[in-house]
Design goal:
The chain is an alpha/beta fold. The chain has helices at 10-24, 29-58, 63-89, 128-139, 153-166, 179-186, 199-210, 234-246, 266-280, 296-311, 343-346, 362-371, 385-393, 429-435, 463-466; strands spanning 2-3, 92-93, 106-113, 116-120, 143-147, 172-176, 192-196, 216-219, 225-228, 258-262, 315-319, 332-336, 353-359, 377-381, 399-402, 423-424, 437-444. It is globular, with a radius of gyration of 25 Å. It binds nicotinamide-adenine-dinucleotide (NAD). Nicotinamide-adenine-dinucleotide binds at residues 120, 122-125, 129, 147, 149-151, 178-179, 182-183, 196-198, 201, 204, 219-221, 253, 348, 350, 376, 418, 423.
Length: 467
């Protein structure tokens, strides 16, 4: 294990931060702004080194994407939290304190920082998955320890060095390492634990957290579906789906995974997606605009899903071809109506492949989606508002984008999170602030307590019953 403060273990960092948190008492708005601003300044100062590191970790991820997704995405969360948390942090008066108002009582809810937040990030968005939740954690007045992903080690090191230069480890620290470090990390008595990663590992993290009754925010994955209604413009839907799928070569938790469309329009949609993808990426191997698959294991995994479908006789449209042994860039594979038992039907793809499925009636597609695990994102294309509302009312997912894909997680003022197998809890906006705050109910008694004269206290008499 390495970290920004190599002499301190995970438990020592937690204890250090907890003691400092208790010793400090209330965390002023000014101090919260100062901490958020420190992270903002750090990101601005280190953006080139961080983008370079992300590029190297992926074996050639375009700096434009790293800048947009991880640097600007994190800055957006940090600035939004900095500029709005004062609207969220004030006490909430509860004037309706019946029946205690009879006693002259008042009540309010006070939002207090929980204390020390552990945040475990992933490699596909190695800064965003740490710093976007951190924005809400700091806004709520907490301290934090970040655990980076072992699959993005260069980014982890640049971040750890930058944090160590700018922050006292009593406030913010970075821990690096693989699954064994993550296991140790998730077994600590944090005041709250955030995990971003796969559903399978999320279960291990929640089980470890349960041993200490640590509340968790789980930002997991799943097979995010797209529904292309009959009222949708196929060219527009294809444009948005192709562009959204191209981001990070599909290595995005909200990447479109399965696209549902009426059987009469499936071929046109597949051709339009392929044409738009080819326009963005006329070549595959060596194309500096295309993000490679992050490592050999994931390259083999995505390739195996596609090869399994081919071996089953499923139609697969590959948009371009990769030269063997050059790099880990893969062409987009459109896999048409694979059977449920195919590998690609059973697993989150998380790479440059996508399933296209046909329906005769969109309600069949919604029924099929509802039979599976609840997805992180759901997308609907169409101009038919009645159908749009029907889809929204009859499905459940972490979030939704309409007539686009991948966009809603960028909303800073709306909660980002999953439901069911795609996770629990949120960050972003007021809901994110609340996630990392303890909502503490306060009751203040009035000067006069009438319970005795009303006969509500022993020794009881019939007086109260007669009232
Ligand atoms: P992962 O679950 O393999 O790893 C994530 C983290 O868990 C890493 O820090 C890793 O060190 C740790 N880890 C791995 N194995 C572990 C174990 N056995 N015990 C304890 N910790 C362990 O996920 P990944 O491959 O890094 O990321 C891909 C997944 O993350 C996809 O499912 C994707 O959808 C999801 N994701 C979700 C979001 C979101 O916001 N909901 C964002 C990005 C990625």
């Amino acid at each position: 294990m390495t970290q920004s403060n190599p002499s301190l273990g995970i438990r020592q960092l937690l204890d250090l931060q907890k003691q400092a948190f208790i010793a400090q008492g209330p965390v002023s708005a000014e101090l919260r702004v100062q901490r958020l601003q420190q992270v903002i300044d750090m990101l601005v100062e280190c953006k080139d080194a961080l983008c370079e590191a992300m590029g190297e970790d992926f074996g050639g991820r375009p700096a434009v994407f790293s800048l947009a997704n991880d640097i600007l995405g994190s800055l957006s969360s940090l600035k939004h939290a900095r500029d709005h948390f004062r609207d969220w942090m004030g006490d909430s008066e509860r004037p309706s304190v019946k029946p205690f108002d009879m006693f002259g009582a008042t009540a309010w809810v006070k939002y207090q920082p929980k204390g020390v937040i552990g945040i475990i990030g992933t490699w596909n968005a190695p800064l965003f998955t740490l710093l976007s939740p951190l924005a809400c954690a700091f806004a709520a007045g907490n301290r934090a320890v970040l655990k980076t992903s072992e699959i993005a080690p260069r980014t982890a090191q640049v971040l750890a060095d930058a944090v160590a230069r700018r922050f006292d480890p009593q406030v913010l620290a970075v821990v690096q390492g693989g699954p064994e470090v993550a296991a140790e990390f998730s077994g600590q008595p944090w005041d709250h634990l955030v995990f971003t990663g796969s559903t399978a590992v999320g279960k291990l993290i929640m089980a470890a957290a349960a041993k200490n009754l640590v509340p968790v925010t789980l930002e997991l994955g799943g097979k995010s579906p797209v529904l292309v209604g009959n009222s949708a413009d196929v060219a527009n839907a294809a444009e948005r789906i192709a562009v959204g799928k191209a981001l990070n070569s599909g290595q995005l938790c909200v990447a479109p995974d399965v696209v549902w469309v009426h059987e009469s329009r499936l071929q046109a949609l597949a051709e339009a997606i392929a044409a738009r993808y080819r326009e963005m990426y006329p070549t595959v191997s060596g194309n500096a605009d295309m993000t490679p698959v992050v490592n050999e294991r994931h390259h083999a995994r995505v390739s195996a899903y596609v090869n399994d479908a081919k071996a089953r006789g499923v139609t697969v449209v590959e948009v371009g071809s990769a030269a063997a042994g050059v790099d880990r860039r893969l062409p987009l594979a459109l896999v048409i109506d694979p059977p449920p038992e195919a590998e690609i039907s059973r697993h989150e793809i998380f790479g440059p492949a996508m399933v296209l499925r046909s329906f005769q009636d969109i309600r069949e597609a919604v029924a099929a989606i509802n039979e599976g695990e609840r997805p992180l994102a759901l997308y609907y294309f169409g101009s038919d508002e009645a159908e749009q509302n029907w889809v929204l009312d009859h499905s459940l997912s972490g979030g939704v984008s309409i007539n686009d894909v991948v966009m809603h997680p960028a909303l800073e003022d709306a909660p980002f999170g999953g439901v069911g197998a795609s996770g629990m809890g949120h960050y972003h906006g007021r809901e994110g602030f609340l996630e990392f705050s303890h909502a503490r109910s306060v009751y203040k008694a009035g000067n006069h307590d009438p319970r005795r004269e009303w006969g509500m206290l022993p020794p009881y008499n019939a007086q109260f019953e007669q009232m």
